[in-house]
Design goal:
Order of helices and strands: EEEEEEEEEEE
Distance between the termini: 40 Å
Radius of gyration: 14 Å
Strand content: over 45%
Helix content: under 10%
Structural class: mainly beta
Number of helices: 0
Shape: globular
């Protein structure tokens, strides 16, 4: 079982940048990771997912709303997953969660939140207009 702790959330103006971190309690190369967010009154939505252990380079997928603005990466030595967020907009305001899904022969990288078993407590991002 892996424990996740997010950090890096803050209040920034429109156009600002933030880097969120997700520290994992054990080897990140044994898990797929995802970033999700939930704004008040709205359903949770996927932001980005990452599989760092591929044959060539990390494989990532992004929600259309954040493509070209957000980048996720993984430090498999320090067991930290990052979400770099640039050109932030008020609609990015939400509680951001890191989630992990254990890699097995039966699991694949997924953008569906229900596929992730392990979740952090979340970190708040607020973007003012």
């Amino acid at each position: 079982q892996v424990k996740l702790v997010e950090s890096g959330g803050d209040s920034v103006p429109t156009g600002g940048s933030l880097r969120l971190s997700c520290e994992a309690s054990r080897d990140t190369d044994a898990y797929y990771f995802g970033w999700f967010r939930q704004a008040p009154g709205r359903e949770r939505e996927v932001v980005a997912v990452i599989d760092a252990e591929t044959t060539s380079r990390p494989y990532t997928q992004y929600a259309n709303s954040v493509k070209a603005r957000f980048t996720t990466s993984e430090d498999t030595v320090r067991d930290i997953v990052y979400l770099q967020m640039n050109d932030l907009k008020p609609e990015d305001t939400a509680l951001y969660y890191c989630a992990a899904r254990r890699k097995t022969k039966l699991t694949i990288l997924s953008m569906i939140g229900e596929h992730y078993r392990f979740w952090g407590q979340g970190t708040q991002v607020t973007v003012s207009s």
